[in-house]
């Protein structure tokens, strides 16, 4: 018997994705005394699990110019615009340097502090933190890699079929 959720995943994405990303930071029951900060609250779900709800988010703030982007990794309020910040905890340079490296620097002590207070990193920051080895790899990164591998395989098949038809045409003439 196949589960309905598995069928829905197959229908939406075209392939089975066993990994899911949770937006919640789950905590134990009775943890309200640990989070008496006004910025964090412990919310209980209908199924009895508790998670942190915070107004802070860890995101990328754009710096640099038109053809030379540069990002700051910042902690900001969830409702603030992109370039507002409470605290800068790192930088990310997406343009490869002479050694074909993309540079990223993160203050892991401050990152750990804000994650403990319930700040939620966005997908791009989760990927950077996972690639740095501080947290496990983000599941969306693995899903993206699978899709990229599939696209390259399809492109190779198309190019090989195109080469085969060109060879047939040249041998016929």
UniProtKB/TrEMBL annotation:
SUPFAM superfamilies: Ribosomal protein S16 (SSF54565)
Matching Gene3D superfamilies: 3.30.1320.10
Keyword Ribosomal protein: yes
Pfam families registered for this protein in UniProt: Ribosomal_S16
The keyword Ribonucleoprotein belongs to this UniProt entry's keyword annotation: yes
Key words of the record: Ribonucleoprotein, Ribosomal protein
Family, per entry: Belongs to the bacterial ribosomal protein bS16 family.
Official protein name in the record: Small ribosomal subunit protein bS16m
Source organism: Clavelina lepadiformis (Light-bulb sea squirt)
Lineage: Eukaryota, Metazoa, Chordata, Tunicata, Ascidiacea
């Amino acid at each position: 018997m196949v589960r309905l959720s598995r069928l829905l995943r197959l229908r939406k994405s075209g392939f089975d994705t066993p990994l899911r990303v949770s937006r919640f930071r789950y905590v134990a029951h009775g943890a309200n005394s640990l989070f008496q900060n006004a910025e964090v609250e412990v919310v209980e779900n209908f199924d009895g699990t508790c998670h942190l709800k915070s107004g802070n988010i860890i995101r990328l703030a754009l710096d640099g110019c038109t053809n030379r982007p540069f990002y700051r990794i910042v902690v900001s309020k969830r409702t603030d615009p992109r370039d507002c910040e409470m605290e800068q905890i790192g930088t990310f340079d997406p343009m490869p340097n002479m050694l074909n490296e993309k540079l990223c620097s993160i203050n892991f002590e401050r990152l750990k502090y804000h994650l403990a207070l319930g700040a939620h990193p966005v997908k791009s920051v989760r990927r950077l933190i996972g690639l740095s080895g501080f947290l496990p790899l983000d599941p969306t990164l693995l899903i993206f890699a699978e899709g990229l591998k599939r696209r390259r395989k399809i492109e190779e098949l198309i190019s090989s079929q195109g080469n085969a038809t060109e060879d047939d045409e040249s041998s016929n003439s």
